[in-house]
Each structure stands twice: as C-alpha cells, then as structure tokens.
Amino acid sequence: MLELARIQQEAAGAAWSRPAPGGLAMGLARTSRELEAIQRLRYNIFTEEMAAVFPDSVDGLDCDRYDAWCEHLMVKEISSGRVVGTYRMLTPANARKVGGYYSESEFDISGLARMRGSLAEVGRSCIHADYRNGTVIMLLWSGIAKLMRDIDARYVLGCASVSLRDDGVTAAEVWRTARQQPLSGPALRLVTPRYRYPVERLNSTLPARIPPLIRGYLKLGASICGDPAWDPDFNTADFPVLLDMERMDARYRRHFGLEDLQAVAA
User: pTM for the full model?
Assistant: First the structure.
C-alpha cells in the first residue's frame, strides 16, 4: 500500500468504538492481494447489508471492469493489516480510456458535459461495522482530496445507494431532503436515471433517517443532482451526488488542506 496518512491509537482517543492496537493507516492499493482484500470487504458488506446479487462473482469477491482503471483507497489496521474501509476513484483520463464512468450505466450524465474534463468519480464505498464512527470515512476523504489535488480535478461524482429492504421508506426521506436543497430545481435536472425508481409513490410520512454516507456528502457541500435510479442487483435506489471541490464546506476545506492550496493559487 502506498501510505498517505495514519492515525495512532493514542491520537484517536475515545473516538474509537473498538480501537485497533497501533491505529489505522490510509493509502492506495498497490498489489493484487490488497485489491482482493478490498473486493472481499465490498462483497461481504454489500451481500450482508444490501442483499446484493453478484451473478459473475468468483470466490466471494465484488469486482467489475472498472476496478482495473480505478485508484483504490483503503484503510487498514496497522497491527493486523485487516482492511476496514475503502473507496475507489475513476479519474477523468481513465474514464476516457475505459469508455465512460460507472455512473453512466445507470444515468444519462450529458448535463455534466462541461465538467467532464475535470470530473472524477468515486464509488464502492464501504466501511467495516467496527469503524462506523466517522474516523475511517474522514481518512478516506482526506485521500480523495489529495488525489483530486494531484490530478487537478474539480468535481466529484458518485452514486449514493439506499437499500430498499425497508420498502423504500429511507429512500423517500432522502428524496424529500433532496427537494429541500438550496437551488434544488437546477441541481435535480443535471442527471437523468435510465431506469427511474418511482420514489414519489413511496410512503413518505413514515419516520426515517438519512443514511450516514449521504448525510456526510451533504455536510461536505455536495448536492443530489438527479432522480434516483433503480439498481436491481443491489436492491437499492441510487441517488446521483455531485460535489464541487471549490464549494466544499469551509470547515472541511481547512481539514483537508484545500484552503492553503487555494490561497497559493490566488
């Protein structure tokens, strides 16, 4: 692994729900063994929690044709080497080489045409249940911010999946929140699902919480930029999410070192 950051146990303190001796390290996968560990973590979490179906999976791995073209961020326990979190990123240059973004299998993104030269895609995010307290996701996003600086890209596109195992109650809450976003009208017209999920037909009066991943995107300053698509393999409603790094919430820009970069550029 090409290490980009680490947090020692003593630095994390009480924030850890189940501390790993020696702490955590975040970096980029650089070996086939590391990629396999990432794919196995993805498979385990997606099948157990989303009841995802992988018709072509081999040996309990979640893999597709985009993996070979992506940078794979990973967080692992320093002492054990266990992978506990991951994201993958497809750069604009590699999106051209592979023939497009993964998101285009679910959405028409022609509304983002002017951004494509500076548009990176993130996805396949998952975090082990022991570490869903905010620390791992912040480590992963510090890596995403560094990669975005390195490739001089401005926009981040992703699909935020919401499980439909609750008959769409949570998806309805996400949609209601999306429609209340500032400038929600223009934002919700940028991307169009190929197979739209009829979220307006769901019972939106039942109580539900926004999933942590989507809540985190919105805190960063991202917007839901289109209607949800239906993903039958994952049994999810997938919401397209767009983040302009230059409009990221100021607190996170400072945390990821983006304010200093902007000052130098100015």
Answer: 0.88
